[in-house]
Amino acid sequence: MSSPVAPQFQPVHIGDAAEPPLAVAPDPASLFARRAARFRDLVPDHPLGPYLAFLGDLAGAQAAVVADLPPPSLPAAEQMERAYEHGMAPIARASVEVDAAMLDTLSRLFDAAAGMDMPEASAAALAGVRAASPDEMRQMIGNVLEDALPAHELAEHVFVAAGLQVHFARLAASLAAERLSSVADGACPACGGPPVASEVVGWSGAHGTRFVSCATCATRWHVVRIKCVACSSTKGIRYSHVEGTADTIKAECCDACGCYLKIFHTATDPKLDPVADDVASAGLDLMVREEGYRRAGFNVFLAGF
Amino acid sequence: MLKEISRRRFLGTGSAALAGTAIGAFGFDGVEDALAASIRPFKLAQTSETRNTCPYCSVGCGIIMYSKGADKAAGKLGTISFIDGDPDHPTNKGTLCPKGSGLLDFVNAETRTKYPMVRKPGSDKWERVTWDYALDRIARLMKDDRDANFIAKNQDGTTVNRWLSTGFLAASATTNETAWMTYKVVRSTGMLVFDNQARV
Predict the structure, then answer these.
(1) Which PANTHER family match (chain A) (predicted)?
(2) pTM reported for the whole predicted model
């Protein structure tokens, strides 16, 4: 029987419309635990196995300390408001104060890491940072936040950087992510830092869109796909992956600036972690570098690589 | 542009002498060599992703075409392996209708028209012809038809200049300029039976 009433217009949902937010704040409580698990998953039969196991333990230590730290102090409300309003990074790395919470985070992480199984060189570096005076520690924090890692104390600085990852993830988690705005090509909208890698996500409401992960504060920000994260060129973008392996990890190579950033298809493989899988896929870096591309992503665990 | 934090910057700030990697600094000797050795049997596979517009209708949905095997230097075209809605496109936001979802079969269809073809009167098969032949023939037939059937004035003697015996259907996925040009050319002949993107 046909209805006497005219049919009403109703949109037909033929797919999941993607409306990605500009930025997604990290969840420190799960971030490091998830990363530790991923590092450990990657260990078996991997040429970097021992290093991945070590980083898994370090991420485990990051996860262990994150729970009961004192609240970190954000920059002054007025300064934050100005940053939000004028499209600047509210927790810009240069403007974040070295406060008691930051120093506490670092020392707790170093204490947690002390029980880890590690080579002598690492143990010596860890002993070095545990014994460092507050002034030396401030100096190292300054170096890390300026991306100026001195070669003769590299391991010490990477330990400090691991602590700062915890601190900045907690700072970023307390921001109003919806108020962040794009600050510059390839710069994190929360802390202004460089990216580590990017992901094509499978999140509901943002399916198939690409988010770039910050190497420092783990904020993820949306960048249009098929576009160089470093220089925003859309010409001459190619994707390289290791033949015969899963094509969920690719290097997005840009002929305009000669850089590449890895792109993980987490929609296909949700286990991928921007930091852990970046280290584990270092073989791809070696191969892409042979083709003459330079790495645009920064990962402190691959510093100098 | 993103500040590059590469080996160069790293070396620039390091104290002279040997600059190692974090892996080496942590005392994991040998794993980098193992990594370098492990990639030797492998080579890189190249793929590309290309933005385009779905050619079916006037909605103009964004699509991403995934292809492999293209080699610009050798002038070799790649093969398209997958087509998906463009999640960054403001119109369709990553979605595609059933026709758009079938684009891959449309691109790779064996029956796809790739060059001008003609089925002559009385014939039962299509033959490939040159563009020159096709365009000359279309122009000739249009001219003849227009000459025979053009209506300059209606019964009341009002000038109408219409040509009703031929129609024109133009493509959907065209640019604004193409649509404008098509409209001007076709309407200037007096043709009324006409549709293209410009109507929408």
Answers:
(1) PROTEIN FDHE
(2) 0.86
